[in-house]
Amino acid sequence: MAVAAVAAAAAAAAPATTTTETTTTTTTTAQQPAPKMPPPAFDLAYPPSLEPYNTPARAWLAANAKSWDGLATGALVFDRRGRVLLVQRAAHDSMPLRWETPGGGADDDDASLLAACARELWEEAGLEAVEVVRVVSEGAAREPGSVFTNRTGTAVYCRFAFEVRVRETGDRDGDGDEMEVRIDPDEHADYVWASEEEVRRERVGDKEIPITNGQMARLILDGFRRRREEPVEGERKVVQG
């Protein structure tokens, strides 16, 4: 499902880097696996600035004259306390037991990159996306899109990461969280909600959370920065998936 390591989105945006692939915070291992299939249908709101991403991956590659082997997406989900959701890669996966945002490759049958992001979030965390808020990059001076290779270096991909708002399920298990995260133990070992400072320290309480790589860390921190500095666009469009 997930490839190892997909805003103002200009049609010719060229990513600049390539990578091989004290807040009270709770960390919880999910007891139930996430659904294997996405919801049968959803309405996903997004601002007009993200319209360039409301297109299938292959169409985006063709329109932007990119020769990458594929596109991937990442979802930055924040809770009401401003903490970001991170998932821990399985011990048998590449970059074992390291932490990242939910995400993965855009499939040919995904209606758009936005829909691909919503699907991956559902499959990896059991969360239903209701709105794509903004695109994030690796920093204020970087265009959206992070180029990376597969573990053998034989294929090149580009990941576009988005801040996503999800449907709240309520505090069903009494841990204070308003969202019920469900991970697939075949793909992820654990999940955590982390503050910006905890991401920087790569530690939540007594738990170490080494991020997969510098590229992923920069994307996560840029998500925090944009939430502080960028206003949320008022107008919304809706894509159905």
UniProtKB/TrEMBL annotation:
Residues 12-41 are annotated as: Disordered. Residues 68-217 form the Nudix hydrolase domain. PROSITE patterns: NUDIX. Residues 12-34 have a biased composition (Low complexity). It comes from the Eukaryota. InterPro entries: NUDIX_hydrolase-like_dom_sf (IPR015797), NUDIX_hydrolase_dom (IPR000086). This is Nudix hydrolase domain-containing protein. It comes from Colletotrichum higginsianum.
